[in-house]
Write a structure and sequence with these properties.
The complex is a heterotrimer of chains A (223), B (83) and C (117). With 223 residues, chain A is an all-alpha fold. Chain A has eight helices and no strands. In chain C, helix 1 runs antiparallel to helix 2 and helix 2 runs antiparallel to helix 3. Classes of the chains: A mainly alpha (223), B mainly alpha (83), C mainly alpha (117).
């Protein structure tokens, strides 16, 4: 009873706190200076069509490196806490397994398309990585007894992470800044091979996110 | 104008889904309802002009998060059966 | 868009109410994910500008005046990062829920009172 009263009082307090934020809110009429700089820089400096991609990969690349590290730490903690027990169960029918193994290749192709075109269309490494992980989820769901080769997952994950940092360090060696996309010639605006190193960095992020999420799904599935 | 109507409709649906998700006794139904909230939110992101966020929310928020919730529920039920 | 802002705050309040009032541990994590969605909608709606298009500069957008034609890209970037981190945090919380269930065989938060004062 007393707990309910405290909860209701806390909610009333929160509503009173948030109410002036809504009523006094003034929407922007124009972009602020930082956003204007990012939008024009994406066209003039980086040759990248998608402004969000150029901010994530180049202008705030260090934050993305930290984000990928947080994802890696969460994966490691989940794998450490949930230990797997092994039991054998009756598998699903041959028809389902064959059909889903055809679909897996197509879904992975879609994921690769999304993260290689991250600088031209909406999408990028994180979305493409998640789609690759869902392809492996289909494999897990259709065949209960499937075992993934964890060495390959670990090799893909650590090599893409290491190459990501190496590309950043090349920028430092050439003295144009950490994780700068201009270490490779920029190419023609709107082509697949444009925007410098952005497609390469985003592909590495996509592989890393895909293998980490596959690892999380494989651990959470358990027995 | 049409976008305002869509946002109001989706918003009412999302608020109802949120209240229902917290009050359902059945955990499986509550998890699916919480996934519906994320799916509707991805349409709102698309109307607000950020397709990147809409893609991420549709794949991560409503896809993978729901799956991970279901796996955790499955593990809890299996532990219950073991004793 | 003021309606999206109100919707975001409403979802935030619903989620916090759920986290405070529910007893089931999985329900508390569901409340957390509703708060996540609400905060993301608030941030995206702050960056919206009327009558403008998405920040993708293809042939539809006049490149010379691009900054007058697109919405703010920075909230999109922030939310993109926050969604991925939110997935990792939710998975970690659910792992702890499973581990707690293994120790005590209960999902109710009333059975975990060691830190209660």
């Amino acid at each position: 009873m007393i707990k309910k009263i405290i909860v209701i009082l806390a909610m009333i307090g929160l509503i009173m706190m948030l109410f002036p934020l809504v009523t006094n809110f003034e929407f922007l009429e124009n972009l602020n200076d930082l956003s204007t700089n990012y939008v024009s820089g994406s066209v003039n400096e980086l040759n990248s069509q998608n402004v969000v991609t150029s901010v994530i990969v180049t202008y705030r690349g260090l934050d993305t490196l930290g984000e990928v590290t947080v994802l890696f730490l969460a994966t490691a903690a989940i794998g450490f806490l949930l230990k797997k027990k092994k039991t054998k169960k009756r598998g699903s029918s041959e028809l389902l397994q064959t059909a889903s193994s055809f679909l897996v290749a197509l879904i992975i192709l879609l994921g690769v398309y999304i993260f290689t075109h991250g600088h031209l269309t909406p999408g990028g490494g994180f979305q493409g990585g998640v789609i690759i992980a869902t392809a492996f989820l289909l494999l897990i769901l259709s065949d209960v007894n499937i075992k993934f080769n964890h060495t390959i997952l670990q090799v893909v994950e650590s090599f893409s992470g290491a190459f990501y940092v190496v590309i950043g360090l090349i920028g430092l060696v050439l003295t144009i800044g950490f994780l700068n996309a201009k270490i490779i010639p920029l190419g023609e605006y709107g082509n697949l091979f444009s925007a410098g190193a952005i497609p390469i960095i985003y592909s590495l992020i996509g592989l890393k996110v895909g293998s980490e999420l596959t690892n999380i799904l494989d651990t959470m599935r358990g027995e | 104008m049409i976008s305002v109507i869509i946002i109001i409709t989706l918003g009412i649906l999302m608020i109802i889904a949120g209240i229902v998700a917290l009050h359902l006794k059945n955990l499986l139904a509550a998890i699916i309802t919480a996934g519906v909230i994320s799916l509707l939110a991805s349409v709102i992101y698309l109307i607000l002009g950020s397709p990147d966020v809409a893609m991420t929310e549709a794949s991560i928020g409503s896809g993978l998060t729901t799956i991970i919730f279901l796996y955790a529920l499955n593990k809890v039920r299996k532990e219950k059966k073991d004793d | 868009m003021i309606f999206a802002l109100i919707l975001g705050f409403a979802l935030l309040l619903i989620g916090i109410y759920g986290m405070l009032s529910q007893k089931n541990l999985i329900k508390i994590v569901i409340g957390f994910s509703i708060v996540d969605t609400g905060v993301h909608i608030i941030i995206v709606s702050i960056g919206y500008l009327r009558n403008r298009t998405a920040p993708i500069l293809n042939s539809v957008v006049d490149l010379g005046k691009a900054a007058q034609q697109v919405v703010d890209p920075i909230p999109s970037v922030l939310v993109l990062t926050a969604i991925v981190i939110g997935l990792a945090v939710t998975a970690l919380m659910l792992t702890f829920v499973v581990e707690l269930y293994k120790k005590r065989n209960s999902l109710s938060i009333d059975d975990y009172q060691e830190l209660k004062w």
